[in-house]
Structure formats: structure tokens, C-alpha cells
Amino acid sequence: MRLRLPLNFILTFLALTFVMHEAHEIVHTTIGRIICGCWGLRDFNVWDLCEGCAEQKAISIIATFAGPAFTFIMIWIGAYLIGKNKTNDQKAFGFSLIFANIPFARILTASIGGGDEVWGLYQLLKNHPLAWTIGLITVVIITIIPLYKAFMLIENKSRIGWFLLFFLAPTVIDLLLVMGLMNTVLENGILSNYWILGSPILVTLWTITVTTIFILTRKNICLVADNKLLTISLYNNDSIVKTPPL
Length: 246
Prior knowledge:
The chain contains ten helices and no strands. By secondary structure, the protein is mainly alpha-helical. It has one domain (7-242). The longest helix has 30 residues, at 7-36. It is globular and about 60 Å long. Mean pLDDT is 92; it is low at 229-246.
């Protein structure tokens, strides 16, 4: 699949990225709510169980692993959608879904001894070096096949460059816009009152906004694939097949 980056695709892809980020956090807090019976508080990237739950219910550690489990499932759904027998639109969405779930961020945080995976394992093992090692190896094993499949799907001349763009850019943009700008706005007290799902009003409005943008523009996600070139290629092949022998 040859890739391209029209502006309308970029808008939809970023919306999908932010939706996946929010879904990851909501999975954390929702599982925490189910186990604890109350909502923990959160901002754009940090969440917590409601007071006293972690001490009273050891099973609440499941909430920590639920977020990355959701993310990994989404990445593998993306890998499934770029299989050989899938349509071009399915491949475009699958490719986008892999990178919208920001696999580089999962690998990066585990690499520096942080992230849900390492922190959750530390709570169980009480040994940070061991939790760090197991967490990092687990993240790499889970993500390596989808990333390899996405890499091999790229047919552009600069395959490595295109792969690195999709691999790295979502993390950088998410850090700058969501965890940087939006968290700064929240810390300054703007729409910071807690509302539904244990989230500040600003977080909830952001979630609604990016979800709406993605739903309304979702067809643009297919524009990452240069179907025009594919159509020309198929037309030329048909012409070759249908040309009678001399």
C-alpha cells in the first residue's frame, strides 16, 4: 500500500489517536469503578482509584493492566485488518489503528522503567528491575508483529521514513498537545471541576469533541492509501491480460 498524507486524513487520524488515548484512560477508570464501587480522579494522562480502594481490594490492580490490554487489542485488530485478503479500505483503517494507539509510547515508557505495564508488575513483584525487564520484553513481544506487518505493508520508496513518521509522530503530538497543552490548561483551573466518569469537565468535553470529529470524518481515514495509483495499476494489468496475442 502506497501512503500519502492529505490534510483531511491527518485531521481524522489525529482525532482517532486522541480517541484511542481517551479510551485507554476510560478503560482504566471504568474497571476501577467496577471493582471499587466509586470513580477515581484523573486528568489527561494520570488516573487513580478512589481513595482506599487499592489498600482494601488487591484485585484493583486489574485496572492498571486493563488500559494497556485494551490498547494492545486495538493494535492487534489493526494488524488483522491489514491481512492479505482484506480490502484496501480495511487495510487503510487497520494501518491507522495500529499507529493511532501509539505503540512507540508503550515501548518508550517501558524502556525507561515506567508505564502501566512496569508499574503494575512492580506492585505484584515488589522488584523494580524484574518488573522493568518483564514489562519491556512483554510490550516488545506484543507489538513487534503488528509493527512488522505495518512496515511490510508500506510500498513507498522511503519505506523506513514513512514507518518512522507514523511510529514516532503520534507520540510527539500527543505529548505536546494532550499531555502538554491540555494538561496545562487544566492545571490553570479552566473547566477543572470534576463531572462524569471521574473526569474534569475539560477532559470530558475534549473526549466528546475528538470522538465527534472522528465519527463525522471517519471516511477520510481511507485516504492514507493512494488508491488512484492502485486503480491505474489494476487497469494496466487488465489491459495486458485482455490484449490478444499477435
